[in-house]
TrEMBL record:
Protein name, as recorded: Aminoglycoside phosphotransferase domain-containing protein
Native species: Penicillium decumbens
SUPFAM superfamilies documented for this protein: Protein kinase-like (PK-like) (SSF56112)
Length: 159
């Protein structure tokens, strides 16, 4: 079971979608639910009951792996990313709607965005601010989104 204030319904929906559209091993979600909890930022505490996949976290074994094994794992991860990015999503944001979270957004989330134009407007406003304070080149073109695909947003070294 996984639970907490940052466990939102979109996580279970994403796991189910990945399981049905790719050959990526994911824990099967048996049940997910939300309980109102106004002490949490999103106003709920979410829970997912899911299968456990046996394995060792990479941050615990990476430094002991041979270089060839590390390269093979990196290739497998790249393949998983490609599989996820092959899944086209019809609208911006998390599956099932709601605010966008992650490194591309503020610490408190952004949106929800009702359509592409709204996400482009928000993104271009942030880009304009970056240009004004010299955090982006002045000739950076504005965002124009044509296709939305499934992304993970939390693939990073934990070493």
């Amino acid at each position: 079971m996984k639970g907490g204030g940052s466990v939102l319904p979109c996580e279970a929906e994403m796991l189910n979608l990945v399981a049905s559209k790719t050959n990526i091993r994911t824990p099967r979600v048996r049940r997910s639910f939300q309980i109102q909890d106004e002490t949490q930022y999103f106003g709920t505490r979410g829970y997912m009951v899911m299968d456990f996949i046996q394995g060792q976290p990479l941050d615990e074994c990476w430094s002991n792996l041979l270089n060839d094994d590390q390269r093979q794992i990196a290739t497998q991860i790249a393949d998983m990313i490609a599989q996820m990015q092959s899944i086209v999503i019809s609208q911006p944001g998390p599956l099932g709607g709601g605010p966008c979270r992650g490194g591309f957004f503020t610490d408190y989330s952004a949106g929800p965005f009702k359509d592409t134009a709204e996400l482009e407007g928000w993104s271009n406003q942030k880009l304009d601010m970056c240009k004004r304070v010299n955090q982006a080149p002045k000739d950076t073109p504005p965002f124009q989104f044509t296709t939305f695909v499934l992304t993970h947003q939390d693939i990073s070294p934990r070493i």
